[in-house]
Amino acid sequence: MQTIWLVLLIVSSLLLAVMILRNKISWLWFRRFALHLTAAAVVLYLLNYSGLISGFEVPLNPATIGTVVLLGLPGIMLVLGLQWTLF
Predict the structure, then answer these.
(1) Which of 10, 18, 41, 52 has its CA 20 to 30 A from that of 4?
(2) 20 Cβ partners below 8 Å, 6+ apart?
(3) Counts for the chain of helices (H) and strands (E), in that order
(4) Contact 65, 44 (CB under 8 A)
(5) Are 69 and 36 in contact (CB under 8 A)?
(6) Who's near 57: CB < 8 A, 6+ residues apart?
(7) Burial environment of residue 55 by CB neighbours within 10 A (0 to 12, 13 to 18, 19 or more)
(8) Which keywords describe this protein according to UniProt (predicted)?
(9) CB atoms within 10 A of CB 53
(10) Mean of pLDDT values over 13-19
(11) Residue 9: its pLDDT value, please?
């Protein structure tokens, strides 16, 4: 059964890659997403090590970077607010 799931995952991933490579709009979307992802990671890194937010350290993991990519500046405030209320 695991072999069937693995083959299905590989085939669907290859088909998705073919669709992305064939469509020019997908390249624009991929480039924009990569730029936002990089910018979010850099901003979180700078906030952690610049000392602007003393007492807080936002971890650099896929969840926090994804939140900042999706929401932007409010995403940073959301992560800081969650960290403040939970810890």
Answers:
(1) 18
(2) 26, 27, 30
(3) 4, 0
(4) yes
(5) yes
(6) 48
(7) exposed
(8) Membrane, Transmembrane, Transmembrane helix
(9) 13
(10) 88
(11) 92
Lookup: tokens for 80: 């800081």
Quickly tell me which residue has 């970077």 as its tokens.
65
Asked whether the beta carbons of 68 and 44 are under 8 A apart, the reply is: yes
Each residue of 30-81: pLDDT tens digit? 888 889 889 888 988 888 888 777 777 888 888 888 888 888 889 888 888 8
Query: Any idea which residue has 């937010």 for tokens?
Result: 53
Q: Which amino acid is at 86?
A: L
Write out the two tokens for 4. Answer: 């069937």
